[in-house]
Amino acid sequence: xxxxxxxxxxxxxxxxxxxxxxxxxxxxxxxxxxxxxxxxxxxxxxxxxxxxxxxxxxxxxxxxxxxxxxxxxxxxxxxxxxxxxxxxxxxxxxxxxxxxxxxxxxxxxxxxxxxxxxxxxxxxxxxxxxxxxxxxxxxxxxxxxxxxxxxxxxxxxxxxxxxxxxxxxxxxxxxxxxxxxxxxxxxxxxxxxxxxxxxxxxxxxxxxxxxxxxxxxxxxxxxxxxxxxxxxxxxxxxxxxxxxxxxxxxxxxxxxxxxxxxxxxxxxxxxxxxxxxxxxxxxxxxxxxxxxxxxxxxxxxxxxxxxxxxxxxxxxxxxxxxxxxxxxxxxxxxxxxxxxxxxxxxxxxxxxxxxxxxxxxxxxxxxxxxxxxxxxxxxxxxxxxxxxxxxxxxxxxxxxxxxxxxxxxxxxxxxxxxxxxxxxxxxxxxxxxxxxxxxxxxxxxxxxxxxxxxxxxxxxxxxxxxxxxxxxxxxxxxxxxxxxxxxxxxxxxxxxxxxxx
Length: 501
Hints:
By secondary structure, the chain is α/β, with parallel strands linked by helices. The protein contains 22 helices and 12 strands.
């Protein structure tokens, strides 16, 4: 989030254009199926869809009923089904089951599948294998970017990380390139492109190919975006693994921010209802504390509360004309600000309760030790205690991954010990979790021989095999020198990303 108060920060482009384009294209696709229709929506598309076109807009374009794509199809009397889905094999089989069930019962309907943001050949193959490819029509909703705030846009592709970094599937590279092409065409040509990582390079190269094919739609326009930086997530896992300490980060950690909004439960609202709140620059309270260290947030909210009360108290000295102006111009805004202030105070209290239970200060201390490279044994003991107390399965994994990355892998003894304790505390089903974390390089074990040094090699020639074995064990109990801290120092260099242009 940019700091609006700084004079050196340029004005952000109007990203609302992206929302309007996505809405217009969706309406066009829905109108291609004239008449009343039922719309089946994939669960992880519901929040982004709500930011683009709410229920009232869908109803205006003859969407009769809305259903969530679930394990069992909902019964419906509609003659037309429209499916708004991600290009997933599982979802194609779900749709095929609905179509084949209608065929078996002799029911005739029209079926339309709208893929977001694009369709894959594999999906069409599944539909063909299931014998329904000729019964459905397929379209693409080119919904590549969703504006979450005045200067934040997101692709909202939750499966991208797993598909690319774990499974090695490059299917989403095209979506990234298309998103870059869209930005380039709407907001003028980019000044320079910088990138680091394999995915960044492939996305850039495909984007350049697309630009050549389209002959540069953004050329000749006044550029509104200066430079672009493409960075693979695996270039910097550490940032994502460290505990968040600013207010927005802790809200996400505690309540989970989804698509720019958060659901505050009864413990925050002080009622029996949950409230969905958009977290963006329009929230005057949130915009002032989102980037603040959590330790200073309570002080700010307390002062804000006193200021609001002072504004309310002004009513006592007003005459009738002033009171009329106050009610018509200020009261509504003060009530809204008071409501938001109450919610954020409630959120802070919930965060405090959770973090106190998790020994947050001790966790920060352990993370700091891992990053700096001292008291590693004490940090490992803290992780073991964290696992044994069953504080949080996610937090325990996060700390183990941070230890692994900063130490270039765990020594075999520690790896086996931590893995055994974790499985005993949280269940054997996490064996697959450890397997996947090892594949992706987040939680690895140092291989035999990696900790051997030149000194050990020389010593082993001078002693018996038995003594050499003991010395080897001693060396293996020491972590090899970490490359993490050497690399992190290089990031201070003026040039650390490769210029692609």
